[in-house]
């Protein structure tokens, strides 16, 4: 009996995927630079990244990190300061990193436009005025490529959790319908097919 085209196709796909390893959901994520937290020690994430569906829509275009007034704010990546000033009464610092830039607010800048900063280098201190977490102080940290907002938590390995489908961990035969291990069947002690 010849195997059906579906079995051959699924076997080929399963063997290819098992030999190449996981594929990131966003190819750019595989090339993310490794950065540092802008507040030390590692802060509590008060509000996560929630990009808008449309450029003008509601959303959260960065993350909010709990901090304290006067705390040193550090550049997440090495780069050059491209903005240091006040916007709508809030202190803002932006650091360029080639094709991307990170933003930090509310910050009393200790750097000027054109200054080179290292990863972890001080760029200012956290202010209360303009805090997204008022009456608490927190740092709003953003990351952009052009006009596209990115999740800055990806820079420190704390971005969204990417779960692989269950079949990725199974041998190719399980994908093709062989009897699963009891726990994988979702029924402890189950001996039948899924």
TrEMBL record:
CDD domains: M23_peptidase (cd12797). This is Murein DD-endopeptidase MepM/ murein hydrolase activator NlpD. Residues 1-27 form the signal peptide. It comes from the Bacteria. The keyword Cell membrane does not apply. Residues 59-152 form the M23ase beta-sheet core domain. The keyword Hydrolase applies. Keywords: Hydrolase, Signal. Gene3D superfamilies: Glucose Permease (Domain IIA). GO terms for molecular function: metalloendopeptidase activity. Pfam families: Peptidase_M23.
């Amino acid at each position: 009996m010849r195997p059906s085209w579906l079995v051959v196709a699924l076997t080929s796909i399963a063997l290819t995927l098992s030999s190449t390893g996981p594929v990131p959901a966003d190819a750019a994520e595989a090339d993310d630079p490794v950065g540092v937290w802008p507040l030390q020690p590692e802060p509590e994430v008060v509000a996560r990244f929630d990009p808008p569906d449309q450029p003008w829509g509601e959303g959260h275009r960065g993350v909010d990190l709990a901090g304290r007034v006067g705390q040193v704010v550090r550049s997440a990546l090495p780069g050059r300061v491209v903005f240091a000033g006040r916007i709508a009464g809030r202190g803002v610092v932006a650091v360029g990193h080639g094709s991307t830039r990170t933003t930090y607010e509310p910050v009393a800048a200790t750097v000027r436009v054109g200054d080179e900063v290292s990863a972890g280098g001080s760029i200012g201190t956290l202010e209360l005025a303009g805090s997204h977490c008022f009456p608490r102080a927190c740092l709003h940290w953003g990351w952009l490529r052009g006009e596209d907002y990115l999740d800055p938590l990806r820079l420190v390995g704390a971005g969204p959790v990417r779960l692989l489908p269950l079949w990725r961990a199974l041998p190719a035969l399980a994908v093709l319908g062989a009897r699963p291990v009891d726990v994988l069947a979702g029924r402890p002690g189950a001996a039948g097919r899924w």
